[in-house]
Each structure stands twice: as C-alpha cells, then as structure tokens.
Amino acid sequence: VAIFYGLSTGEAGAIRIDFAGVRFYEVLLAAAVVVAAITAVVVPRKLGVVTALSVTGYGMGVVYILYGAPDLALTQLAIESLSLILLVIVIYKIPPLRALSSRSARVRDAIIAIAFGAAMTGIMLAARGNPGVSRLAQYFNEHSLVSAHGRNIVNVILVDFRGFDTLGETSVLGIAGLGIYALLKLRPKKKRGDDNASVSDS
Question: Whole-prediction pTM value?
C-alpha cells in the first residue's frame, strides 16, 4: 500500500508502458515464464512442478542474455542446472504433494503475491519513465584507462570497479560446477550384507 501511495503521489514520474520496442520473442519468453510460474503452483505432480520451475529459471537466464548481462546469465543457468539435477535425484524420495493450507489462505497468499509483483512492476516502470541524468557512463569512459589501465570499458568494470561482485559470481559458478561433478560421481554404498553374500557366492 505504501509503495502504491508513493507511486501515485510522489515524484517518481509517470508510469508509462511502451510496447514500441518489444520484440515478438520477448513476448513469447515472458508468456512462457508466467505460464510456468503459475503451473508450478497449481500442478499436482512432482515432475510437473520440477519442469515448470526449470522453465521459469532458464527463462530468466535467457532474459539476462537478451538484455546484455551475460555474467548474470551464466550464474543463473549454472545454478538452475544444479537445482534441476538435485530435484531429479531426490524427486522419488519426496512425499506426495498435499494441500496443507485452506482455500481461503491460498487465495489470501495469491492476492498478496500478485499485489507485491504489481508494486515491483510499478517501481520499474516509474524508474524507466524518469531515468534522470547519470554520470556513470562518462566516469567509466574517463577513468577506465587512467585508473584501471584497460581500454575495454566493460572488462574494466567487471574486473576492477566491481571486482568483488564478479568474484562472488565466479565463486558461485565454481561451487555449482563442483556440486554437479560430485553428483555425477555419486554412487550408492553397498550394504555389508550384500558384500558378505557376494563373497559366499564366489
């Protein structure tokens, strides 16, 4: 409520929705993510939930690629792949899906979730409608070579100006890779009785 009040009375700028630059595959991608998110909530089967969650996660990775954030895309895709492998491994050990809340509680939660999503969308549209004047582009253009001794501004930003952020993303990718490798090498332990039986048979 506070967010909607601020958007309607503050100086955030008018909320404008412009579809002029929207490409058709972006619409298809957004629709796929929305449908998958809804499916993950309502589908009764565990495999359907895992599939829907994967479509949502990979769809967000593609969004990062389309809007020029390949580092975020790599992190998202790596973590999504690891999550998918983990879920597939344990899916048969998960108890059957059950409704643990009443219908009124689920309707209440859905209203809160939709309202919060609408509020975040309003904030993004207001920020897009009032971009303001940014001096970051000029700053990086002037200081990349002088301060960081690099002519590729994008690389300088990733490695020098926001190096700790990149280090964190690289660490996440490394941990995800190690997790996938450990899962691929995972083998069930043999029981002691099985070992004794094999010795006696021989």
Answer: 0.63
The three-state DSSP-derived secondary structure of the chain is: CHHHHHHHHCCCCCCCCCCCCCCHHHHHHHHHHHHHHHHHHHCCCHHHHHHHHHHHHHHHHHHHHHCCCHHHHHHHHHHHHHHHHHHHHHHHHCCCCCCCCCHHHHHHHHHHHHHHHHHHHHHHHHHHHCCCCCCHHHHHHHHHHHHHCCCCHHHHHHHHHCHHHHHHHHHHHHHHHHHHHHHHCCCCCCCHHHHHHHHHHC
- Dihedral angle, C-alpha 98, 100, 102, 103, nearest 10 °: -40
Residue 48 and residue 36: Cα distance in Å, rounded?
Answer: 10
Can you tell me which residue has the tokens 């939660």? Answer: 109
Query: Cβ(129)–Cβ(11) under 8 Å?
Result: no
CA distances from 34 to 11, 19, 37, 60 (A): 30, 18, 5, 11
pLDDT (tens digit per residue) in 56-102? 999 999 998 888 888 788 888 888 888 888 888 777 777 777 778 88
